[in-house]
Every structure is written in structure tokens, then in C-alpha cells.
Specification:
Distance between the termini: 11 Å
Strand content: under 5%
Helix content: over 70%
Low-confidence stretches: none
Order of helices and strands: HHHHHHHHHHHH
Structural class: mainly alpha
Number of strands: 0
Radius of gyration: 19 Å
Shape: globular
Largest sheet: none
Mean pLDDT: 88
Length: 213
């Protein structure tokens, strides 16, 4: 809990500095990252304040930066369960995203997938069928299979991803966690125990033994 409190303080102080010095005008990328972090930490008041400041300056941004702002606004609307606003933002993004970089398109696909995975997993599987599959979409596709109770497909996908060499340490840990949960859902407790042991060892090695995660 103290770790989260310390992190919140750092993020909120940095947001205050961004706004007071107007760093977001010249280079909004740091401000986007701070707003995203504040949303992740549940610091809604300051996240909304920074997002509204960014929105007021959007005519100065590049097309890519405006898309990043839309994604932030969509994230905020989703958290606040403001579904009419979310629908409007998603429609704008769907039109604009075709002009975006491949990386930004993948971020958008992942974002839309997260909003639909519980209600329409078949659709998520259809539009995330990219080759080669970006690491950021592996768990989303596996979760879609799990939502459809197709645990063997989810397990096969995660087990294959576990051997990939292009994953970051955190992505690898996330894959191991998802694989453990998929084995448990499929009542394969021995396999779940085996993978969870690997997860704990890998987490200790990569994050340190004292890390709360």
C-alpha cells in the first residue's frame, strides 16, 4: 500500500509540474504517460484535470498525438462508465486509426478488444488475428478463448507464447500468470502448480524478492 501511495505522490507532483510549467504544450508525450499512470492508480481528479488541459491544446498536436489523446479520453470514459461518450470517441478513433502507425493501430486494437472481450469474444478473435501476433495481443486472444470456454486453445496459445524470445520480462511474467489461470480453469491443477512455480521464480529474479507484486 505504501508503494502505491509513494508512486501516486510522484505522479501527482509530476502532473502539477507539467501543468504549472506548460511542458505539455511543446511535448505532450510525457503528459500522456502521466495521465495514463494517474488513471491506472485511480487518481481520477488529477487525471481528468490533465486530460482536459491536453484537450484544450490539441490543435497544436500532430495527428499521432491527437490519436493518443483520444485513446486517453476513451480510457477515462470507460472507467467512468460514460458509454455514450465512449461510443462517440470510439467512432472517431475507428475512422482516424487507419492513418496511424502500425504500433498505434495495435494499441487501438488492444484497447477495443479489452472493452469487448467479455461480451463479444468471437469478434475480438476475428480482429486480433494478426500475423505475426504482437506480444501485447497474446493475452487478449487467450482471454477471448477462455471467455468461450475453449480452454485448450487458450492454453496452446499461451504455452507457445511462453517460449517466445521477443517478450519483455514483464510480458513473460504476464503470460505465465495467464497460463496458470487457464490451467486452473481447465482443472489441470498439476500443470497450474508447475507453471505458477516458474512464475514465482521468474518474478523473484526479475522484480526482486521484496516486490509486492
Amino acid at each position: 500500500a505504501s508503494n502505491k501511495k509513494d508512486l501516486s505522490s510522484i505522479v501527482l507532483d509530476a502532473i502539477q509540474l507539467q501543468i504549472s510549467r506548460q511542458h505539455y504544450v511543446a511535448d505532450p508525450s510525457a503528459a500522456f504517460a502521466l495521465a495514463k499512470a494517474a488513471l491506472g492508480l485511480g487518481e481520477m481528479t488529477q487525471a481528468k484535470r490533465l486530460i482536459s488541459v491536453l484537450a484544450a491544446q490539441q490543435t497544436l498536436y500532430s495527428a499521432d498525438e491527437r490519436r493518443q489523446l483520444l485513446l486517453l479520453q476513451a480510457n477515462l470514459a470507460n472507467i467512468e462508465a460514460d458509454f455514450p461518450r465512449l461510443k462517440t470517441i470510439n467512432a472517431l478513433l475507428a475512422i482516424d486509426i487507419r492513418q496511424a502507425s502500425t504500433q498505434q493501430q495495435i494499441i487501438f486494437i488492444g484497447y477495443v478488444g479489452q472493452t469487448l472481450v467479455d461480451t463479444d469474444p468471437e469478434r475480438v478473435l476475428a480482429f486480433t488475428a494478426l500475423a505475426p501476433l504482437p506480444a501485447s495481443l497474446i493475452r487478449l486472444r487467450a482471454r477471448s478463448y477462455s471467455s468461450l470456454k475453449n480452454y485448450p486453445a487458450a492454453i496452446a496459445m499461451l504455452a507457445a507464447a511462453r517460449a517466445r524470445t521477443d517478450l519483455t520480462a514483464m510480458e513473460h511474467l504476464s503470460i505465465l500468470q495467464s497460463l496458470t489461470l487457464a490451467y486452473l480453469a481447465y482443472n489441470q491443477d498439476a500443470e497450474a502448480l508447475k507453471v505458477s512455480g516458474e512464475l514465482i521464480a521468474s518474478a523473484g529474479a526479475n522484480l526482486g524478492k521484496e516486490n509486492l507484486r
